[in-house]
Structure formats: C-alpha cells, structure tokens
Amino acid sequence: MAKTKDKDGKAVHGADHGGALARSPSHLLHRVLQLALDIYAEESGSGGITQRQFAVLAAVAENEGVTQTGLVRATGIDRSTLADMVARMITKGHLERHRSDQDARANTVNLTPAGAAVLAESRPKVAMADARILALLKPSKREGFLELLADMAVTDVHAEPEAKAKKLKAPKAEKPAHGKKDKKPKKEKAAKKAA
C-alpha cells in the first residue's frame, strides 16, 4: 500500500486518505486479511490447500485426537463451517474421525498419513507467506504486531457487557505536575490571571 501523509502529517495508507475507512479497525483488518490471503494463495499455488485447511491440519497435528469442539476453539472457525471442512477433508483422505473414548457423543479427529504429508508440504509455503506478511512491517514493529493479533484472537466477543466495559474505561485525566488535581478549567484560570 502506498503511504501518504494527511494535512496533520499523520501517515495515511492506501487510497482512503484520511476518510472514515482509514480509522475503521474492521475495515483495516479486512484489508489486511485480504492482503494476507492473497500472499498465502501466491505462496501455496493453485493446487495448495487453503489457509483454513492448513489451520485445521496444523491444529489436529498439535492436538492429535482433538474433538471438533476443540478444533473450533483452536482455529476460530465456526462450528458448522468446521464440520463441513472436516467432512470434506475426510473425503479427501486428509483426516479421519472416530467416536471419542471419553464422550460417546463427541467425535475425535486425527491426521491420516496423507494429511500429514499435505501438512508437511504446506509448512514451508505458509512460513514463506508469513515472512512476506511480516516483511511489510518495520522489524521493530513485528513482535508487537504479532502480540496484538494474538491478544485479539483470543478475545471472547461474547463476554459479559460489564467485562467489556471495564476494558473500555476512559483514560484517566492527567494530574498537574505538583500532584494535586486542578479543578478549574484553563480558560477560567487565564481569565483570573488577566484580571
């Protein structure tokens, strides 16, 4: 994205040039996601698996015998979409499903040898895509960027409204340098000094 500066000298990215979209986290995250998925598609090639398929295979590899509910938590993919994905990946021979030994109502998911091979083949491509994405940032900003994304990724958007409100508290007013709260507005002080 091209970088320009607005009238106040602040960096403006892309074609938004300071409009409402340039200050919209949802819009900017969507744009960044599209960019990341485009880079992923370029690195994976036309015959590669999708980013979400990679996420499912990687999550299963890290949690062999995971339930589909556990996969929802691990990947962030909604339950119905994940169920469809797992069914298609079973048909392709990448995953296998079994009844859970602990809960007869739950299914566990395992990698097949073919799924492990697809995952192994995809890892270097995903690593290259991730490196390209991070290369878009200054080196000093990369770790903070990953930390912010990780924090956001584990946020419970369905948390109680009170818990959300506590996180969104307004910042505290600055105290004067002498440590006491100054209760008179600046204009009132200036008027007193002038009198």
Topology:
Blueprint lengths: L2 E3 L5 E3 L11 H20 L6 H12 L3 E2 H8 L3 H13 L3 E5 L7 E5 L1 H22 L4 H15 L7 H7 L18 H9 L1
Antiparallel strand pairs: 1-2, 3-5, 4-5
Short description:
With 195 residues, the chain is mainly alpha-helical. 54% of the residues lie in helices and 9% in strands. The chain is globular, with a radius of gyration of 25 Å.
Short descriptors:
single chain; mainly alpha; Arc Repressor Mutant, subunit A; 5 strands; disordered N terminus
3D structure, described in words:
By secondary structure, the chain is mainly alpha-helical. Helix content is 54%, strand content 9%. The protein is built from eight helices and five strands. Strands 3-5-4 form a three-stranded antiparallel sheet. Residues 1-5 have low confidence and may be disordered.
What is the tally of beta strands? 5
Radius of gyration over all CA atoms, rounded: 25 Å
First-last Cα distance: 55 Å
Structural class: mainly alpha
Write down the domain tally: 1
**Main sheet makeup:** 3 strands, antiparallel
Q: What proportion of the residues form beta strands (DSSP E)?
A: 5-15%
Model regions low in confidence, pLDDT < 50 over at least 5 residues: 1-5
CATH class: Mainly Alpha
